[in-house]
Write a structure and sequence with these properties.
Blueprint: H1 2-19, H2 27-58, H3 63-264, H4 282-308, H5 314-328
Biased composition (Basic and acidic residues): 260-271
Region (Disordered): 249-291
Length: 329
Amino acid sequence: MCTWVGIIVATSCSKKKKRFPLPPCLSQLCVFKTRKKVMNSRKTTIVANGSAGMVSRAGEGDWRSTMRTFREEVQRLRDENNALKAATTSLITISQKSAEKLDTVSEDNKMLQQSVLTLLEEERQMSSKMKKENESLLVKLKELEDRCVKGDKEISRLADLVDAERCRNNTVVGLFEQKLAEKEDEYQTELRLRDPKVEKLAKTLLEQSVQHQSELTEKDSLLEAERISWRLREEMYKKEIEQLNLREKHAQSTPRCSKRPNEVGITHEKPPLVPPVPVSTEEDAERGGLKKRRLEVIRQQRRMQDDSGSLTTLASMNKLKDLKESLRL
């Protein structure tokens, strides 16, 4: 009976191992615990064998007590099994969490590795670009150095040319200055020779101006005399016009007086003494036209005098001469 109980315990342990396989990281701990349980079960089997021997020695034995102990042992094993199940489930959850954390950490590591790789790639590209730029800048610097060397050579050549041109220009300027000095001397001599001629011309011009002034004064005096004569003539013309107007009025009044006595019925033996009526002829018409022209000329002269308020110019003198000629005609 006791041997059967030991076999059942061993089979239960083996079944536990088959039913609930543990992860490899916790296999050693489970093995240690199973060994402990086997040792405890062996101890119980030995105690049971001793008690059974004692019972057999004492008498036939109580199978009910053995079954009770067996049931208690089975219940204990079930409790231990449940505890192991709970421990294994907790360990499994812990292992899953740890695995998830490891997965997240691995993903984070992968992401970090990728970011680091991208950064390294960018840095490598930047370094390559910088190298290329440095190489291009070095090439440009070499080109600039070559250009500077060429420019220095060109500047030195141009400086030599400028010095040569300056020397040549200095010589040319010296020759021109000599020629200008000679020409100035010639001009000075010519001016010295021309000075008496200029003085003679100035004297002749002064004499001519004096003559013109004297002529102008004479013309002014003549104009004044002509003005006076024109004024006298104007007065004479006015008087003649007044006389003519009186004669015309008298001639118009005489026929009216001759008609009145005839109308009343008075007759005269002799006609009244009446001055002879002037007969209008072509000569009188021409004279009247000439008088009118002269009056217009006088009016124009007065207007010109009022506008100017000073002596007439040569143009006005010419106009007066033209008017005089027209009147004479």
